[in-house]
UniProtKB/TrEMBL annotation, chains A, B, C, D:
Domain of life the protein comes from: Bacteria
Pathway, per record: Amino-acid biosynthesis; ergothioneine biosynthesis
Protein name: Ergothioneine biosynthesis protein EgtB
NCBIfam families hit by this protein: egtB_TIGR03440
Domain Sulfatase-modifying factor enzyme-like: 196-343, 358-431
GO biological process: ergothioneine biosynthetic process
Pfam family, one: FGE-sulfatase
Source organism per UniProt: Sphingomonas oligophenolica
InterPro entries in the record: CTDL_fold, DinB-like, DinB/YfiT-like, EgtB, Sulfatase_Mod_Factor_Kinase, SUMF_dom, SUMF_sf
Length: 433, 433, 433, 433
């Protein structure tokens, strides 16, 4: 049997590159973000980077090109005189959903674009990076703001790139590993959930929009919210706890489930988190390091909102609202936790020193993703960023093991449809007092 | 050409029957609700009452039988010794979504049940009514509460029966009328929208659960909510205003639309409210009295949440939250307004003496339908009533021209998916101050 | 439990009416065919006659109206001066597929037309019958030919009416019976299949188009065909033989199946003929007299071409070609056999005195439905009759228990898609010599 | 704008390699076929070779591996002691439809397999080729027959590889070219179609199964067929003639179309052959050399059976039966004509010296693909080769510009569904005399 080339180790250099906010200048910030994307794509073949495994996912090549198109379009084209477009036909390919920017390639056909190749997309990145870094010193403030936005935008796509590759590899019957990972050291199981109580009252949540701290438009305005007395768990639900839910028939009892969730369970024959599989009677999970035994102490991940809600119902409690979550997380450092640039593999890890609210898994809240009071989208194409997705989705908080460190913050509002679960999504419980 | 039998007039007797809450005794209440359902179905043929026009809708016969099944199952079977079930095979046919009550006929096959006939379903109703009315005096309190719940449940289905028949008739190329209607007297156009301002602050919303006032479980508990300064319109948007939105290209400009809404517009080729059609260059609408010229002064109806949201965006404002709506409506009498038992036809009508918050059209709010703080579903099968639908839907408030008078109240939370529009749904605007 | 009205007996008067070709005059022929349709529809409620159970089927009301529209359009409108159209809006509803006759109501929405009612359609029939019978004596020959065509056309729809009602009733969980049937007298099992050998050589098949014998256009021209040496079975396959195929794993072994057939088996979870169900470990079938124990001696029916082909493959033989079938059937009387006007129920019956080639079940041949050499469709709208369906379908021969006696003949080419099986379809085997 | 790497010229070496049947030994035959596949794939990137553009198509990498799996499984595994399987997990990936060979990767997920890479598949080919060529001298006769079958099997996949790549490239908005092609020299238009008459009578068709001449099982047995008097065209229909059909409204008039064809035209908005597009008012076509002006003198290609049949109907004639075609082609040399190894580009070319029956385009016949009299599939897995596809498809004859020279013969029966048109399919007319 031929030996497939072994999966590479997670690149050490990336780890350094992954703390871009430490650097003080925008130049370093841009260079750091841009090089991290390349480092993440380094182990990918041209084919790995081209195929689209489902309509929710995009090819890695597309992520690399789309984030570049963002800088080229909104910064270089609009603000840099004499900039020469890399290829006039590519905006059609690499625009995502900005209706104001004209026609786009159909989302479900992104995987058809075998040309340009991955190497040609890397040349595109180099072309735009050179122009962008050269222009930085003389950019007007509005354009500099767009550069900062572009960096955060690219960090979002870094997480998608990693989770989309995971999904693609899971579709391959050979189940290849992206990165090799060290053998696991067994850890102690976390103790029972502790509950952080809150007496209720008016709190302030949302992002204030101060000049030095970046936030996406949907995180503001900062505003008052009224909490009622409640308690929130000091850690997320573990794989071991989830296995007990399964063993108790959790996926077979409609009483735990929202009606839409139950329809989804039956239509898609759902009986465990995504990527879980029983091998010789024991649960395994597929991850970026291939298929491995399930770690009962680690946070459960790849569960949908429907599953999260059903678990909470089974446990006799509920999911936190996003305001409750933000109030609880406000005092914690968003840069500590298991993020993408940790030394170890990209996967949720057991924790010993909780409560922590950042990293590991995005936590489903019970809040629908809707505008904050006073929210107004930015004018122009960039304004299509978040507001237009405000129906049918739920808010997730906290960041995951695939989030670049520094990208998470207490006010951050991630959002997905209630059936989606190919991101590193998990569950924190809450209850009324 | 043969003359089709002319559509009957809306029955005068129904009008009387439609104020069941005026009567003081439960006996009269039950008798009134039950007879209204029969009056609504009176002009229907066996075939009219059997066909299912889409998966969201149900046959009239099914509504008549399902509401009867509710009383038979939860009251007679569970609380009346010696009750003889009408037909042991019918619960399978007429259970709707109560998983705890066992297997059900597939929702999308309800229209296949040509037998039992409409007359046999009427016999079923008579059988159950006789047993129910006879048992009333000696029912325990818990069972009496279920009878009250059953009446409100049936009122919900009365509205669905009427809107489902409208949808069915609209599918018939001959566009039959259910009821004939008098010739319209032209009315004055309403003046411009006036704005009712609110300074913000903590208010109480939701239903308190007092013994004398009925409410569905999802309306409570009564709780504090924080409003920010805002204003709410003193009337709903009219057909004439909507026609201006269309003429301004409202359905062709993605900037006004939520992303999911725009996908819906394109996939379903939406370019006007449901049942609107241009005939010889002028807008008409199909209603329970057939196809007629559009009345520009009447409230627009049969619009989806997506359309409501797009209209508000086009107008530079937004939809109210359900808390804002309830705070504004709290001081108004929920029994005044254009309800199903009005003398005229069942359709929204121009108003002259606003602000009014009840009747005419259900008003889309910007609030996702989610549980109130402290909400707990009732135990048992009846507890499946509302809580399990709390994902993916939006709240509507106020009641419509197809709502039985007395069924609406300030705390009432109706809910539908954002693309649905076969109910009498309309739009009230709001804005931040 | 209420007693549903018992199913009526099959009408005795219909039996008489069902031998229309016995009468010598066209007047009697028209009157006989038209009254048989009414007799078949007699036990139907308005709802029974209105619902469409699947896209392949049509409502009984539609069959009654469409066959009437055929006479009204091609005879009365085109050939009878001063004929007053019954309703100018109805052709849109009741045209089937005649593109040349203009726009039609979408086939999959036929079940939405609750109005006109069944009674109004009966009035339509009376109106057209009166005009048609009055005009008969003075019709030009071309129009008389269209009347004859219309009678045969209506006989086709009589068979569809019956099989469509059977399909609709099978969708009803209560499984109502259309007609009551006498208790079965057990019969002897037929002996093993006998084989009728043929030495091969050139034969003549197809219809010669003589003036006195009606045939559809696709049955001609009469032409030479070359047979190779073969043998054809002297009876069709029985339910008992089919049960052995099932017991031997016939539906689980892909080796017996055409590739498209195997895909169909897996996609639709096919494991027995349509309407078969195991009740307490024994096979039952649903028929026009309700659900009953399977008769092992009767011909198997409600099997698709895929199943017929798989059965033949399992048995080590093949299906006959249509030329082989026609050559073998040529010497037999097409009016003997179990047809719709038999005294007993409409279902295939065991036979004792074979070989017989007519009645009981339509027999799948291995021949794709394609034009005979020299075939040319008739000019005009009536020419759309058969030729345009000549792709993707297979030929069936012989007529069934739901075919009006006199409608079958040796040259008759029925055709359906290989997955369809709601007609009374069965299997006769053949083999090479 | 960056210069995409220019498309390579069609490899000269391939041209030599493409006449494998010239060589006398099986060794050279195997080596020639195997190297041609590699030459065809030479200009492909890893991504080009991995993506699946639709369910009918397969990735080039899959074709390269599947043809190799065929030799590995049916020759090396079954007949060569001590053969070491290249990778035990790959048969699951590269089995196509042989049910007897066990489970297979789902056909519609073939494009998910980014690993093994194209290079790894080339290593697989080298591994199997070495073992196969080494084993050839000592293989038993049955195994040598399987090697011959494997070569013809691989030639089929060579044609699919080329047409699948064309389809994939056509899905790319940049419309890349696989091979560069010389500038066209304008040619004379062919004259009007000439008609080759046949008096009718019994002819012999099909393959006799002689030891020296290979044929697929479905081509036999050789048997008598009866022709009626007819004439067949001496050339295929040209692009110019097809443009006249379009200009005459051919795609908008249902009278020309089979019913299924008309449904397809309307559902898929078909208005021209695949890959045709109007640019600045003139027709262009996309081919393996990119998008170019249409050559009116060349045979039309990429038309479906439905289109072919509609064209013939519009022209007042019909398609030939496969027996008529074979009788007419029997006297012509199947190695002359425009095949894949011609010096020029792979596309149909105008002809001047007709009648010719081989090369350029596969010609739709009016014959459904069904077994010949006496046909019996081979035993075992290899027997699944052709027989199981004998429903729903039509026979094409003659070979195309993408067929390897030597692969075509008079008895060859190609088959596709009537809506498929991504092969090089064209039209020859016939008529009754």
């Amino acid at each position: 049997m031929p030996k497939a080339a072994p999966a590479p180790a997670k690149p050490a250099s990336a780890s350094t590159a992954r703390s871009p906010n430490d650097r003080s200048t925008l130049h370093d910030r841009v260079a750091g973000v841009r090089s991290l994307s390349l480092a993440l794509a380094a182990p990918l073949s041209d084919a790995d980077a081209t195929v689209q495994s489902m309509i929710d996912a995009s090819p890695a090549k597309w992520h690399l090109a789309h984030t570049t198109w963002f800088f080229e379009t909104f910064v270089l084209r609009d603000h840099v005189a004499g900039y020469r477009q890399h290829d006039e036909r590519w905006p059609f390919l690499f625009n995502s959903y900005y209706e104001a920017e004209g026609k786009r390639h159909a989302r479900d056909r992104r995987g058809m674009v075998t040309r340009p190749t991955l190497d040609e997309v890397r040349e595109y990145r180099a072309h735009v990076d050179a122009a962008l870094l050269a222009a930085l010193p003389t950019l007007p403030d509005a354009a500099r703001d767009l550069v900062v936005l572009g960096c955060h935008h690219e960090e979002q796509h870094q997480e998608l790139l990693v989770t989309d590759i995971l999904h693609l590899f899971a579709e391959n019957p050979l189940e290849p590993a992206l990165w090799r990972a060290p053998r696991k050291v067994p850890v102690e199981m976390p103790g029972p959930i502790g509950w952080i109580a809150h007496d209720g009252g008016v709190v302030e949540i949302g992002h204030g929009g101060s000049a030095e701290d970046f936030a996406f438009d949907c995180e503001g305005p900062r505003h008052q919210a009224l909490l009622l007395p409640h308690a929130i768990a000091d850690r997320t639900v573990t794989n071991g706890e989830w296995a007990a839910f399964i063993a108790d028939g959790g996926y077979r009892d409609p009483r735990h489930w929202l009606s839409d969730g139950w329809a989804w369970v039956k239509a898609d024959a759902i009986d465990a988190p995504l990527y879980w599989e029983q091998v010789d009677g024991a649960w395994t999970r597929f991850g970026l390091d291939g298929r491995r035994a399930l770690d009962p102490a680690a946070p459960v991940t790849h569960v949908s909102f429907y599953e999260a809600d059903a678990y909470a119902s089974w446990a006799g409690v509920r999911l936190p609202t996003e305001a409750e979550w933000e109030a609880a997380a406000a005092g914690h450092d968003p840069r500590t936790g298991n993020f993408m640039d940790d030394a170890g593999p990209v996967e949720p890890r057991p924790s010993v020193d909780r409560p922590a609210f950042f990293g590991d898994v995005w936590e489903w809240t019970g809040s629908a993703y809707r505008p904050y009071p006073g929210f107004t989208p930015v004018e122009g194409a960039v304004g299509e960023y978040n507001g237009k997705f405000m129906s049918g989705q739920f808010v997730l908080r906290g960041g995951s093991c695939a989030t670049p460190r520094g990208h998470a913050r207490a006010s951050y509002r991630n959002f997905f449809y209630p059936h989606q679960r190919w991101q590193f999504t998990g569950v924190r419980l809450a209850k009324d007092l």
